[in-house]
């Protein structure tokens, strides 16, 4: 007996019986969203890690208080009273994570807080705590006036 190839419509029909396109594309879309979310979580984790020391958090406070003009390294060093090499290390870490911006002014380096990066961090936290999970009510976040 000679076997004849089956018509292509038969293969397509059999495949469609086994594969639900809706479920396939939903799973694919969710997988892509999970990958994007994982990349975003990693990025924000690195930012939080960069701000996770007392010295770097104090640097961020100073730069935010001097926003938008920022501060030169000498001004930061005066305020923080830490060695120049240590300050340089902390500023490099914050710059590498995109939390601060630097520009050269003749022989000085002026640092400013990167408000766009900080807005991204705040949006991430807000989405997790106030919209998706309702851990904190949105009105409570908006009504914060001073840090404790």
Please describe what this structure looks like.
With 148 residues, the protein is mainly alpha-helical. It has one domain (16-139): Arc Repressor Mutant, subunit A (Orthogonal Bundle). The chain contains 7 helices and 3 strands. A 3-stranded antiparallel sheet has the order 1-3-2. The longest helix has 30 residues, at 21-50. It is extended and about 90 Å long. The mean pLDDT is 79.
Average predicted local confidence, pLDDT: 79
Please describe the biggest sheet, giving its number of strands, its sense, and whether it closes into a barrel. Answer: 3 strands, antiparallel
Rg from C-alpha positions?
Answer: 26 Å
| Number of strand elements | 3
Q: How many structurally independent domains?
A: 1
CATH fold descriptor:
Arc Repressor Mutant, subunit A
CATH superfamily membership: Winged helix-like DNA-binding domain superfamily/Winged helix DNA-binding domain
Shape: extended
Count, helices: 7
CATH architecture assignment name: Orthogonal Bundle
* Structural class assignment: mainly alpha
What layout of secondary structure does this protein have?
Layout: H1 8-18, H2 21-50, H3 54-65, E1 71-72, H4 73-80, H5 84-96, E2 100-105, E3 108-113, H6 115-132, H7 138-142
Antiparallel strand pairs: 1-3, 2-3
Give a quick summary of the entry.
The protein has a single domain, classed as Arc Repressor Mutant, subunit A (Orthogonal Bundle). The protein contains seven helices and three strands; from the N terminus they run αααβααββαα. It has helices at residues 8-18, 21-50, 54-65, 73-80, 84-96, 115-132, 138-142; strands spanning 71-72, 100-105, 108-113.
